[in-house]
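Thread: "does anyone have the structure for this chain?"

Original post by V.I.:
We have the sequence but no experimental structure in hand. Need at least a predicted one for the grant figures.
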Amino acid sequence: MIHVLFVCLRRSLALCFFFLGLAFCAEAKESDSSQTLPQALPPAEELAQAVEQDLAKTMAARSASENAGAATCNGNIGVEFITTKNPAHEQKQEEVRAIEQISGSSLPGIIEHLLIRPLPEQKTAANPHMSIAISYPSIGRSDVDTDIRQWAADIADAFERNFDYDNLTEEMGSSQNDGLNQNVELAADFSVSRPSSNALSITFRLWNNVGGPHANLDVVTLNYSLINGQRLQLVDLFKKPDEALRLMSAWSRSFLDQRYGTGRTQMLLRGTEPSVENFSSLTLTPAGICINFQPYQVAAWEMGAQTVEMPLEALASASPLMVFWAR
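Reply from O.Q.:
Generated one for you, C-alpha cells below.
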C-alpha cells in the first residue's frame, strides 16, 4: 500500500514539473517573438508624405545651389557645386595681380611687356651705343598678342638693321665735339582704348634719338577686331573710306584752326589733306575716333603732337561699322 502511494506521488510530481516546463518555454518563445517581429509599415498616407518631404528637401537644396552659382545639366538632380571661395582660383588671381604689379600695368586684363636690345650680356664693341626698349601689351588672346609681339620685334629689327654708328658719326660731324657722342636710342610706350567689347585700340609713342637736337616722335596705332582677331585698317572701319577721309580732313582743319587761331597755314592744309597717309593713326574711342597727327605734320615741333577728337555721329555719312562701337 505504501509502495503504491509512493509511486503515485512520484508521478504527480513529475507531471507538475512537466507542466511547469511547458509554461516556461511558452513564455520564453512569446518573449523572443515579440523582439524579432518587424515593426508595422506606416499607412500609405504617411509614406506619401515622407516621399514629398524628401523631394521638397532635394528641390530646396538644388534651388539653393543654383542661386549660389551651381552648374546643372538638362535639369538633372545631380548638381556640381561651385563654392564661393576656390583656393586654386584665388591663387591664380593673386598671380595675375602680381604679374600686373611687376610689369607696371594698371589696366585690367592688360599685361605690359618690355623688349630690350641688346641685353647686357650681348653688349659688344659693335653696338655699345645702341639701346632699344619697347614697351608693348598683351591682352590674353593668342592671335592678337602674337601680332602685337611681332610688330614690336619688327620695329626693333628695323632699327638695328639701320644702325651704323660710324656713318651716323660722320653725318653729325667730323670732329669729336661735332660728332655723335651719345647713345642711339629707341623707346616706346603705349596706351590702350576699348571702344567696345568688340574692338581694341593700342596707341604707341615711338621715340628715337640719333644725335639730333631732340628725339623724334612717331605715333602709331594698332586697331584690332576682337570678333576675329584681325588688325583693322581704314577700309575695315568704314564702308565709305573716301568719305571718311573727306570728313576727317574738314573736321581736323576746322578744329585746329579754332584751337590755335593761326589760320589755315600751308603746313596745316598739307597735313590734313584727305589721304590715307595723313590719317593713318586713328585711335578708336567709345565716343568715336581720335586722330593722331605726327610732329611737324600740322604744326611746329614746339606745339607738340596734335590730336583731334571726332564723334562717331560726325562720320555717319561714311557708314562706320557700328559693331566696333557696339551701337
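V.I.: this helps a lot. The chain has two domains: 89-232, 236-325.
O.Q.: and The domain at 89-232 is CATH 3.30.565.40 (Heat Shock Protein 90).
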